[in-house]
Amino acid sequence: MTKSFSENLGKGGYGSVYKGQLPDSHLVAVKFLNESHGNGEEFMNEVASISRTSHINIVALLGFCFEGSKRALIYDFMPNGSLEKFIGNTASTVVEFGLGWDKLFDIAAGIARGLEYLHQGCNTRILHLDIKPQNILLDKDLNPRISDFGLAKLCPNRSSIVSMMVARGTIGYIAPEVFSRNFGEVSYKSDVYSYGMLVLEMVGGRKNIDPRDVDHTSEIYFPNYIYKQLEMDAERDIDDLVGTMSEDEVVKRNLMIVGLWCIQTNPKDRPSMTKVVEMLEGKLGSLEVPPKPYLYSPPRLAPSISISESL
């Protein structure tokens, strides 16, 4: 299928992904898991969760191989790779790859619909628990597909709360309650937080950092910087403000507000993904700025760049 693993598409802690082709010429991506990668829990998670799904914004699992210690998963091939390569440390990355703000907005909305489906549309609620740019794949038309369900949790009886013995996910996108139960229970709202951090990264073109590590970096905690921009806008009449903004600027402002709602520290203050979809599909420029999401916010000087450059 992979012509002796001739074309490597990527490599990570889980193993490697290779481009392949079925007998009917259908292109696929074949993910081989490392033989030493745990006890097979992530493989079973992926098969058990993604096989229950069927949605335009969820990557399609076509099959799997399980032979001794060898485990592989076969997906539809996504020619544009992951969202990670389209967002970087500067907003110019978006321009370099030809992604306009309309398309970026469509991608954010597509991811939201995919998560809403996982939380509300499946017979068994599925928590992804590892939403990040690397796990958002883009098809030939740049439509987003949520992938990599290795850390996913199935919620029996449509329960919302799940138990976790250790923190799971990726630094910079992990909800505060995942690494400390003092912030609340792990639930579908933990995916909402990760989605919010992803959206803010899409808007700002900057890699998210763990707020717990902000003291050890020269970076300002980026959500706080975004909030300061909105605070300055809040001093103006919203109708006057929107009336003087370009369509792209209104889209960016909308995404900023949605992202900040999603990363509220208390899970109960975050919207559901259904509400997020409604916010994105509502009237642009009409969203209310949320309370400041506070985790760790040591005093830092904001970067010396204009709002248009930071966006």
From TrEMBL:
It holds the Pfam family Pkinase. GO terms for cellular component: membrane. Residues 3-295 form the Protein kinase domain. It comes from the Eukaryota. Keywords: ATP-binding, Glycoprotein, Kinase, Membrane, Nucleotide-binding, Serine/threonine-protein kinase, Signal, Transferase, Transmembrane, Transmembrane helix. This is PR5-like receptor kinase. Belongs to the protein kinase superfamily. It is a single-pass type I membrane protein. GO terms for molecular function: ATP binding; protein serine/threonine kinase activity. ATP binds at K31. CDD domains: STKc_IRAK (cd14066). Coiled coil: none annotated. It is found in: Membrane.
